[in-house]
Each structure stands twice: as structure tokens, then as C-alpha cells.
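User: Sequence recovery, please. Input:
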């Protein structure tokens, strides 16, 4: 891969090691809107447009997997008006995604507890997966009604049931098997996690999968996040030495 251009003024003097999988906690939509004296829903709509652009930028950089935290299991506690607006935004987005996925050769999947979503949204999610699963470009994953503890709980229940039904034995249970029962089955663990808006916590996101991930926090509010910000995150990632618990000489 050729050296990446960082903005208009300089070019990297050496090639960057591009992370295979980047996970993002999309934070700051509400604050972005508030700064502009607009309702929070306006920020969410702008944030959705930012997601579309970053998908394109990530793929051009050589990132193969992009996973974003769109709606958590805890987000249902928000004001009903905001939740309803988010669900409408999600419906509109999913409706447009099939055409966009095929146009951009993207694989799009949704992780999280789909049983907590309305029937029409679940149908759109299934249609989107079927329409895009054979594409060969960016693997884009959207976490909706997702909480990592809930994901692990559901996985444990499935493992217990399969053990009870003699589909697996207790001795079969190792890290590899557990990963196969998670929502992210078939997706490599993230190399880099980005959280926007200055917050520095995981918020119940991909707790199992982030065990050896590098973290990058930025004060940029998500709607303002650009290709340049993504490049800066990757540049910082390149300054880290990933040891995975070992000692390197």
C-alpha cells in the first residue's frame, strides 16, 4: 500500500501499518447539536452522514472491518422522543443501505439483541444481510440494541443449552469456542478502538473482543470526525507496540 496522505500539506515518509479492524464508539452527536442550538436528533442525523463518509475513507485506507456502536441496550432509557427519532433514523438508514452496500461492495451486518427491535426493523436487517453477504469490500458492522454483558450472557446460555443437549462437552469450551457463540462470530477482534467526544470508557462495548485492542480517544465530536481524524488515529496506532502479553526483545 502506498504512503497515506495526511491532509493537503504533508505525506507520510513511510508506510503505515493499517489496522485490519477498527471499532468506533460514536459519541457526541447530542453535544454537537446543542452547540448549534439544534435538537439532539439533528446531531444524530448528521452523525449518520459521518458514518457513511468514514466507511468510504476507511476502505480506501485499507481497513477491512469497521464496527460502530450505534445504539446500546442502555440507550432505551433516553427520552422517548429521542428513542423514537433514533428508530426512525435507523429505519431510513437500513432502507437505503441495500443500494449503498451493493454500489460500494460492502458487507453490512447488525449485531446485538435483535429480539428487542420491532418486526419491521428485524426484517430490514435480515434483507440487508442477505443482499450484501457475498460482497467483497468493507465489512461494516452496526451494533444496535447491543451491550457486551448481554452478548456474553446470551452466549453463555447457548453454550449451556448445547452442553445439555450433548452438542458439545465441557472440555470443548475454550476461548475459540466462546468466540463462536458471540455476535461477532467470524469477525476478527478489533486492532484499534476509537472513541470520540473526549469520553474515556468502553460503555459496555465489545468487552470480550477488545482484550488486546489499542485504544484511541479524541475530543472531536462524532459529527465533526473526518478522514484526517481517522488518519491521526491510525498514525497513533502505529506508535504502539502490540505485545499480546509477551515480552519482545
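Assistant: Recovered sequence (249 residues):
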Amino acid at each position: 500500500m502506498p504512503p497515506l496522505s495526511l491532509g493537503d500539506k504533508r505525506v507520510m515518509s513511510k508506510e503505515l501499518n493499517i489496522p485490519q479492524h477498527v471499532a468506533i464508539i460514536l459519541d457526541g452527536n447530542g453535544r454537537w447539536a446543542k452547540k448549534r442550538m439544534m435538537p439532539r436528533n439533528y446531531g444524530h442525523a448528521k452523525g449518520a452522514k459521518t458514518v457513511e463518509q468514514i466507511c468510504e475513507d476507511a476502505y480506501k485506507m485499507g481497513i477491512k472491518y469497521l464496527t460502530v456502536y450505534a445504539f446500546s441496550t442502555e440507550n432505551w432509557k433516553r427520552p422517548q422522543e429521542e428513542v423514537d427519532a433514533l428508530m426512525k433514523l435507523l429505519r431510513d438508514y437500513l432502507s437505503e443501505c441495500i443500494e449503498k452496500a451493493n454500489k460500494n461492495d460492502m458487507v453490512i451486518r447488525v449485531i446485538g439483541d435483535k429480539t428487542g427491535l420491532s418486526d419491521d426493523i428485524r426484517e430490514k436487517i435480515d434483507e440487508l444481510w442477505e443482499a450484501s453477504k457475498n460482497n467483497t469490500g468493507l465489512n461494516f458492522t452496526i451494533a444496535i440494541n447491543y451491550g457486551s454483558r448481554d452478548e456474553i450472557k446470551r452466549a453463555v446460555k447457548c453454550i449451556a443449552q448445547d452442553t445439555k443437549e450433548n452438542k458439545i462437552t465441557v472440555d470443548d469450551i475454550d476461548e475459540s469456542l466462546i468466540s463462536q457463540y458471540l455476535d461477532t462470530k467470524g469477525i476478527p477482534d478489533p486492532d484499534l478502538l476509537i472513541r470520540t467526544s473526549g469520553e474515556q470508557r468502553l460503555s459496555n462495548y465489545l468487552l470480550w473482543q477488545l482484550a488486546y485492542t489499542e485504544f484511541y480517544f479524541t475530543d472531536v465530536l462524532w459529527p465533526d470526525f473526518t478522514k484526517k481524524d481517522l488518519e491521526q488515529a491510525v498514525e497513533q496506532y502505529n506508535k504502539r507496540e502490540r505485545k499480546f502479553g509477551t515480552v519482545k526483545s
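The chain has one domain: 17-147+189-237.
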